[in-house]
Amino acid sequence: MRSYIIKRLIYSVIIAWGIMTITFILLRLGPTSPVDRYILNIAARGENVESVKQAIEARYGLDKPILEQYLTYMGNLLQGNWGWSFSTSQSVADLIATHWIYSFQLILLATIFAIVLGVGLGMLAAVKQNTKVDYAASIFSFIGISIPGFWLGLMLIMVFAVYLGWFKTYYDTNYPIWSLQNLKQLLLPVLALGIGELAGYLRYTRSAMLDNLRKDFVTTARAKGLPEKTVIGKHVLRNAVLPLVTIIMFDLGSVVFGGAYLTEIVFGIPGLGQVSFNAIFANDYAVVVAVTLIGTFLVLFINLATDLIYTYLDPRIRYD
Amino acid sequence: MKGAETLNNSYFNNSLAAIMAVLILATSLSACAAPASRGSFIEGDVAGGEAETLNWILAADASSFGYVGYTLESLANYDNQFNIILRCLAKDIEVSPDGLVYTITIRDDLKWSDGSRVTAEDYVYTLKNLMFSDWLNYNYRDDWHEDVGGQKVFVTPAVVDDTTFTITRKTVQPEFIYTLYGLVPYPKYIAVKYEGDVDAFTRAREFNDLSYTGNLGPYKFKQWLKNDKYVLARNPQYFLGKDNGAPYFEEYVIKMFGTSAVMQAALEAGDITYCGIEPQNVAKFKKMHNITVYTVPTRGYNIIAYNQRANGWEGLRKKEVRQALSMAIDKETIARKISLGFAEPAFSFIPSSSPWYSDETVVKLGVPPLNDKQKAMQMLKDAGYEYMKNGDRDILLGKDGKPVKLLMVTTPGSDVVESMSLLIKQELAAIGIDVEVKWVQWPTLLRQYMMNREPGTDKEPRYNNGPLAVSDEAWDMTLMGHNTDPLAPSGSRVFFASDGGLNSFGFFNEQVDQLFQQIRSEEGLDKGERARMYGELARMISEEQPVDFITYTRANRGFQSNVKGIEPGINMGYNYYLWRFE
Amino acid sequence: MTEVKPARSGKRLMDYYWERLCKNRLSIVGLSFILFLCLIGIFGPIFAPDPQKTDFTIKNLPPLGFSTEESVYEISTGESTTTVIWGQADHPLGTDSKGRDMLAMLISGARISLLVGLLATGIAIFLGTFIGVLSAFSGGWMDNVLMRFTDIMMTFPFFLLLVMIVFIFGPSLAIIVLVIGLTGWTGAARLIRSETLSVRTRDFVTASKALGASDARIMFYHLIPNVSSLIIVMATLSIPGVIMAEAALSFIGLGDPMSTSWGTILNTGQHSLDTAWWVAVEPGIMLFFTVLSFNFFGDGLRDAFDPKASI
Which of B47, B293, B414, C254 is the most buried (most CB within 10 A)? Predict the structure, then answer.
């Protein structure tokens, strides 16, 4: 077991290194320059654009050969130095340390929201198969899967913040993270981000429950006269939950780098999604590479954790 | 719920005000007439306008200087009529009669955070050891260069005494004084620690949290959460607030929004104090009793540049053809339909708000009587082009006998620019010219269309590589927003002079070069003479039409009505430290 | 699990699947809407006005039955004149801030969305099938290399990569399609691989091997047809993701500025949420119904191909 984990870890590091290298090369080999954004401003102040461009690129070492830049960056990274973000003028480590919490709280709440409601409604639909409740749940799940989260976010802002005035139109960072106001203002973003996941879990839970309900051991349990609650809760759900873990874990990767990214932009939440988005436009490669790397490690870690949870939940599985 | 939100805010404000009231009772008995300071002034800004660094000497963007300006006054600024308002200056800068020596006298009550005085030495150090240094590569060093016998040399600063220093030039440049007014010092006692090490200087904590600014600005740095907000706290020591207790806001906040729609909704809800308002929303906001909207002139305008280089349509190299095209484009319609009236027709690179603007000399193409499609077509015929009938449409034929098809490149994203390009396409279609509008992202526009080099050479591409150079991709017109400094419009020589660094459209005219030269020489010292030369320059450029100036933009600024002390105008922020809630 | 039959099993099988599909009413609804979209995507532009045609006299027209106000400012007097604007029958869904007809733009958007959806999915599924089958069939180190590569691609933060490449190389439909296609094959590759592995051990494959059939022949004549139902279902269910990705990209301002897609309309719409709500609402609704239809249809297909599913 331990050798398996070590093997997986080494493997993860290699994947992360590959992704980091690809990102770095893409950003540094592209034709864009960090100076692009300022051309007009520089020109409006009567400066020679070329000399300013050279000066800025020299200051951040962007004029060196790409291999040298790459080796310098790698060397710094191995020493734990994430580099300097020239578009926000602070160290990348500081930047991430300040902003991660905004992404994290959003993703965490959305995931909890999706799991609790998704699994709950899924169970309900399965138990009440072929009733109105079941059909309603099914329609709801189709809607949830199909609705574009960023558009839903816009609509929620338009209706609940602009027209009804129930919420602020933007995310207010003056409220402490641990406050009711913060929870309240996260309601709409969590809804916009979580609804797709919720619908997915609902559908999955329902079909997994139905599959298991047909199994022999359920019939046996029922025949033994166990109360329905025990049958559903202990036998059916437990078996259905196992593959659900994979799905949730797998989804988390796409939530971190897809939905959350857009939700942050729509609602103006200053999380890592917005940070990396702006960094791409500013050609601030150190930030982009760092955020990509963190996301990658997160996904890899989640994959590993999933495997380990599997062995715990299902003793039949052994990795050797 | 909306009510609860507002209540919450006012509760917050009241409690702060109560605390402040106690403080003020204790401290400002002498200034009993001064308004009490309270509340947070929250300015809305749209993402993309955020500053890059507070270490301003490294900045290339415009916002960074603005962000620092709240904590650090420059030597002087201007009111809405462009009168000089002294800030760190004790008296106005004295210029020697030959225009070569500038004597600057600063106030004697300026302090750094450690209590030490800001002296002339700090200014001269900042110039000599930082801005002019090789290791730091200050982006705007060209402002401080002069051309002596073909060599670029820096001007010479020298300390006279604690509060006086001089700057000596070898050549006369009457508009150099406006560069001087903007000067801001670095604290020598801190900067010496990092001198020579650009990495250390870039990362220096003091420079990135502005903890050195002492009593130099109305506010002190408090917090900067990127993509979200920049928070400044009232500086009770502010040197201009000694007698009047200014500034009157406890906090000044710049809050970033993703879209202007959300930002304006926040203004409407009272969550922010001030933001710009889009033309289509002005009427709605003017009706609200809690919002005051000021319509003010700006320094901005929109232009179409005609590509006069070898890879543009050959017709564009003729003055008459450019005039004909500009004549067909109706500027009043653009001002009304696209800017909803918040713009006026433009004819010159000098904004109409500038003291150097001369309405009499410019050729007013694009408004009646010089907005005439028939006449434009006649001019094209006179220039040697023929028309072909196609149904009821006239189609302009090029020298090769084929219909003329022009390519207009522009960037997507700005609603005004997008709408304008489409309207111009319609206007030119009416004189038989088919325009294809192509939207490309900014970096592509720069690299493929604006940068140029002589074909067959492997020179680095630049924005102006001489008259023989062309861009990689062929183009005919481009549309973009511009702005000119109303006080020193000769900065626009980068676009219109033959050696101008951004003359990517290839306009080469010796007389224009000469006038720019003269304005920046002894001849320009006399203000009347300079005004005459600007008038002549504006006439020449408006007649030559290397670019079509479309409209000067008006801005709408919406404030909560309880903000008092605002003087609406082009530089309405000049006295912001005196604004207050009532 | 797919029902395994030798290839070219004839028309009867298709009829059987069709019958099963027809029993699922939602999937027929979905299919009908998709066909309707295809029709307006192909023929709509012939009848509808040019979606890029601007007319400032009719800008910001609300949909039929709604009204808004517009004011024009007079610099000389400082006064504004306000007019109430009602929706017009010529522009039943209204116009945007440039006076472009919303209906025409939505039709153009249908075309773009379907085009991007089909092309990118086509590339992804083709690559995925190829890599999956190749990997399963060759086994050994080749299998290992291909699957590790798939792992890397799977771990890559897809949307970030998309934004990065499109920003760097400039937004054009071709680049968007290529990037989505070239990065979206991993799921298909894994699934097809595992499915192929299970099919490979079946008797008829062993039999043809014994008869001396070449690897390529076995791959193309036996394996791919046998996983084809799986491929169809995967393709149908991955189209909505692609359409959403394109819309999201255009929404954040990285859409092809030369074409009108639902995402680009949404991008302009978000800036006028407070004044012209219909510009943001309408393309979103189209997007939603399109994605919903593909999900209905894909779901129905899966059940139809799945012999165990009770319909």
Answer: C254
